[in-house]
Every structure is written in structure tokens, then in C-alpha cells.
Write a structure and sequence with these properties.
single chain; alpha+beta; eight-stranded antiparallel β-sheet; five-stranded antiparallel β-sheet; 8 helices; about 30% helix; globular
């Protein structure tokens, strides 16, 4: 389903700096690959702001994020990762989540994520500060990942991923296990990347999370947030923005810095 056969696996593994050990435990390999992807490939939406169509076929994803060393947003990141995992022999199911982050009401399920081998929540494409490594898809799953702490709760058929920030649990998103296909994601991708009402249209968004902090750019403002709730912000000049994108996010985005 995810066209893993079209992937240049060696090029991808070189891009993220990870080489699977055939003798290692599959769960350890999955965790290592997930973390390596996040270290190497930042969340970014610069093409959306530049009016460049977002293609989700594997050759296009590989050309952008592997060969040209760009980043991408959730559909790009998780569909590329799905192809990688499929190529490595994992069973991958696409899911869709409703992004919460303090919001309530009638919210659409617009975030792409993955269920792997029927027992792992996998997500390398959440710009709101998500998992560093896969989390067991089990009621009450609780895990410390660096300084971040995550919990997964289930109410009937709805799962909610939460992060402990500033002394309280913050709901990141909720989802069900109803499968989504590449065709489903293509429709959502078109809306989010072209509709003026989309949060991704009309502004630059770049994000990277490591074990200690979350680094995010919204237009020309850099925010650094830590799990204890501390937040530091500063405005960037165009030259500073280009430098931060290159040095801290590994990105060259000429369309975003002009």
C-alpha cells in the first residue's frame, strides 16, 4: 500500500544516519530509526507558503526529503516513513488524528500518523511536539523520552496522546484505529496545503524537538520550549532566520527567507 518497493532504502538510511542491525530486537530498531528520522528531517511547510504543490508519491517524497535534504509536514514525513517501514517488513496502517493542543469543539481529523505491527503508535510528523520514539499502543502506556513524558489513554474507541508540560497533562491529539489509505491522505493534504483557512497556508512553520527542548519558528519568531513549561521567544531578522534554519534545523529554504 505504501509503495516501499519504490524507495531507495540505502539513500534514506544514509540521510538519517542509521543502519539497522539485523541481529537487533525489532522494537529497538524501530525506536532507533524513529529517533534518527526526527534528528535528521525537520518539520517544515515552506513549499506550501511558496505555492509549490505537495506531492505524496514515494519518488517525490524521496526527492524532496532525501536527495534535496528538505523537511516536510505530517503527510510527507509519515508517508515517507511508512514506505521505509514497509520496505523493512513492518505492517503499517495509516491513521488520522484530531489535533487538540488546548482546543475543543468540532475539530477535523487532519493529522496523519501510523500504527505499526498492530502494537506501536508511530509519528515522525507532528509539528506540535510529539513522540521522540514509538509508544506502545496500549491503555495507560507511559514513557519518559528524554525530558519529555508521554501518556496514552483510551476512552471507548478513542485514543488520546498526552504530554506532561509545565506541571500538567496536555492533550496533543486524539485518534481512532479506523484505517486511512494514501488516497484519504491525498484529499486532506490538498485541503491543508491550499485552502486559505488552513493553519499551514500563509505562514512559515518549522519545528524540531530533541530530548531537552522544542524549537519552533513561526514566520520570523523563534520559540524554545522545555517540558517544565519555560518558553523563550525572540524575533529573527531575515539573515538570522536563514542562519537559524541552516544551523539549527539543517534546512536551506530560500523561498522562506526572502
Amino acid at each position: 500500500m505504501w509503495n516501499g518497493e519504490l524507495l531507495d532504502l540505502d539513500a534514506y538510511l544514509s540521510r538519517v544516519g542509521f543502519r539497522p542491525d539485523p541481529d537487533a530486537d525489532p522494537a529497538a530498531t524501530l525506536r532507533g530509526l524513529h529517533r534518527a528520522h526526527l534528528r535528521a528531517i525537520s518539520f517544515e511547510n515552506a513549499d506550501i507558503g511558496a505555492g509549490v504543490p505537495i506531492a505524496l508519491d514515494v519518488p517525490s517524497l524521496q526527492e524532496k526529503m532525501v536527495r534535496r535534504r528538505r523537511g516536510g509536514y505530517c503527510y510527507e514525513q509519515n508517508l515517507l516513513f511508512a514506505a521505509v517501514l514497509e520496505r523493512l517488513g513492518h505492517q503499517v496502517t495509516g491513521l488520522a488524528a484530531r489535533v487538540l493542543l488546548g482546543r475543543t469543539g468540532d475539530l477535523p481529523r487532519t493529522h496523519a500518523l501510523l500504527r505499526v505491527d498492530r502494537k506501536w503508535l508511530v509519528d515522525v510528523g507532528f509539528g506540535g511536539g510529539g513522540l521522540l520514539t514509538p509508544l506502545p499502543l496500549a491503555q495507560g502506556a507511559f514513557e519518559q523520552q528524554g525530558d519529555w513524558t508521554f501518556r496514552l489513554d483510551q476512552d471507548d474507541d478513542v485514543w488520546t496522546l498526552k504530554s506532561f508540560q509545565g506541571g500538567e497533562w496536555v492533550s496533543l491529539y486524539d485518534f481512532t484505529e479506523d484505517p486511512r489509505t494514501p488516497a484519504d491522505f491525498a484529499i486532506l493534504n490538498y485541503y491543508l496545503s491550499t485552502n486559505p483557512a488552513s493553519a499551514f497556508v500563509g505562514r512559515l512553520l518549522v519545528q524540531r524537538t530533541d530530548e531537552r527542548a522544542r524549537y519552533a519558528i513561526a514566520d520570523h519568531e523563534l520559540t524554545v520550549a522545555t517540558p517544565d513549561g519555560e518558553t523563550r521567544k525572540r524575533s529573527l531578522t531575515p539573515d538570522e532566520l536563514a542562519t537559524v534554519l541552516r544551523d539549527d534545523f539543517g534546512l536551506e529554504l530560500p523561498t522562506a527567507t526572502g
